[in-house]
Design goal:
382 residues; 9 helices; Elongation Factor Tu (Ef-tu), domain 3; six-stranded antiparallel β-barrel; binds zinc ion
């Protein structure tokens, strides 16, 4: 049985321990110590990393009463161990922040926390009910008030009789002693992970994203330095956008809306002019008794159809207009006054794997092959 030092003191980052067992498994070593402050992967939280002597601890898990440390080399005797404290403290901040938010959501809306993941770069948690943007904002505000109030966070194992009369949140039925993590006036929850001792250490609680999830909501959380890092990245991006739009980050949304509207109008005008140009060019094509096969750059389906219409009377066989490229394939419209285009559609579905449809006069669709093959096949139609 491994003594869990993190259970009593979340701030212990270095310790001496005796190696109880060291077994080679495949190319790694499973190490059991008499005591540890390495928190194993548990309850949705990734494990601590660090060193046993100078051997890197790659993974930590719980097996029965033992904590298993995985290294890539063997150890023995008495060892000096150190966890990656920066990574651990960061997780303590995120985890305690999550408790505060869950406690507030539970007391305001009665929702249960039904999912949790805390990794080295991301933290998400799920509720079994939806929250509006306004509700999320209210919860975030209350959570940060709890941070500023610098409330006490305590962890303890109540006696069975005391536990029975205690109101607390729990994701599952727990066998054996129940560890309660309590945040003054905010939350009481069954939890085995390390937390900060005072809520002020969390720094800030920020929801960075959210989405509907299984009838409830998934929230992405950033606390402490993670929140600052997120703020800095977003500020950098927003400042860059504001500079391009010649505005400030505070009214970039208004300027961008105007920019997007202008761009849409411009796109529409360019599209119209491009269509006119293609059709005008088509009208200049000399008459031919055979097939007319034309490739145009960047024409939409509507333009292809209008171009084919504009070419009426200019060809004796089939007129086909294509737009696209060899990697993405080609859209096309094709027509004929003499040939039944439905039969052409059947042939090119077989020969060129075309996806197309229409009537006996005109067909439209797409072909996912190269220009040379298309040209060669269409030239063969009589
Ligand atoms: Zn917890």
């Amino acid at each position: 049985m491994t003594e869990k030092l993190y259970d009593k003191n979340a701030y212990l980052s270095e310790f001496e321990a005796k190696v109880i067992n060291c077994i080679k498994v495949d190319s790694s070593y499973e190490i059991i110590l008499d005591k540890t402050c390495f928190f194993p992967e548990q309850g949705g939280q990734d494990c601590d990393t660090g060193y046993i002597d100078n051997h890197r601890v790659l993974y930590v898990s719980e097996r029965g009463d033992d904590i298993i440390h995985i290294t890539d080399s063997p150890v023995s005797g008495t060892v000096h161990c150190a966890i990656n404290w920066q990574e651990r403290f960061d997780k303590m901040q995120q985890h305690t922040g999550e408790h505060i938010v869950c406690g507030i959501v539970h007391s305001l809306y009665g929702y249960e926390n039904v999912g949790f993941h805390l990794g080295s770069n991301d933290a998400t948690f799920d509720f079994d009910g939806p929250l509006s943007d306004d509700q999320l904002h209210d919860v975030e505000l209350l959570a940060n008030k709890a941070v500023v109030s610098n409330l006490n966070v305590s962890a303890y194992y109540p006696a069975k009789s005391e536990l029975e009369s205690l109101q607390y949140r729990s994701k599952k039925e727990i066998d054996g002693p129940v560890r309660i993590v309590e945040i003054d006036k905010t939350d009481r929850c069954a939890c085995c992970a390390p937390h900060v001792a005072k809520t002020g250490e969390i720094g800030i609680i920020k929801f960075t994203d959210h989405q509907s999830y299984k009838g409830g909501i998934r929230i992405h959380l950033a606390c402490g330095m993670r929140a600052l890092d997120d703020y800095c990245k977003k500020q950098y991006n927003l400042q860059a956008i504001a500079k391009e739009l010649s505005c400030t980050p505070y009214n970039a949304d208004v300027f961008f809306k105007k920019f997007a509207e202008d761009a849409a109008k411009l796109k529409q005008t360019i599209g119209h002019l491009k269509r006119e140009l293609i059709i005008l060019r088509a009208k200049c094509i000399p008459k031919t008794d055979s097939n007319l096969i034309i490739f145009e750059d960047d024409a939409d389906s509507n333009t292809l159809r209008l171009t084919v219409n504009a070419l009426e009377g200019k060809y004796g066989g089939i007129c086909a207009v294509f737009s696209g490229n060899d990697s993405d394939g080609y859209k096309f419209a094709a027509a004929s006054a003499k040939t039944d285009m439905n039969s052409i559609a059947d042939i090119i579905r077989t020969d060129l794997s075309a996806r197309c449809g229409g009537d006996r006069h005109m067909i439209q669709g797409s072909i996912n092959t190269d220009r040379k093959t298309i040209q060669a096949r269409f030239e063969k139609f009589i």
